[in-house]
Amino acid sequence: MTTATRQEVLGLYRRIFRLARKWQAASGQMEDTIKEKQYILNEARTLFQKNKNLTDTDQIKQCIDECTARIEIGLHYQIPYPRPIHLPPMGLTPLRGRGLRSQEKLRKLSKPVYLKSHDEIS
């Protein structure tokens, strides 16, 4: 990992912790705010700990992009949780045939950046 990438990752980590410190739940209730702050901190720790040994620059860049997207989506929608995607089970039509394996592949390829690691840690 280059020093510029390392600084970018550490900057994102600090940004998440600052965001968690200032976070207010959309409902305005203190219990929800505490629960959401705790979720933000636990999610950040888990994902950063899981990815701390990455050496491939493409994977690191993908993780940085995911982190940035989740921060921006959380700020925009005022929810710390990833927004789910809603696709019907056979909603993606493959080019040839309607095989289940090709549906799963298309579903995996259509997953947004901000949900790439969500299924892995849930």
UniProtKB/TrEMBL annotation:
Signal peptide: none annotated. It comes from the Eukaryota. Pfam families: Complex1_LYR (PF05347). Residues 7-69 form the Complex 1 LYR protein domain. InterPro entries: Complex1_LYR_dom, Complex1_LYR_LYRM1, LYRM1. One of its GO terms (cellular component) is midbody. Belongs to the complex I LYR family. PANTHER family: LYR MOTIF-CONTAINING PROTEIN 1. This is LYR motif containing 1. The gene is LYRM1.
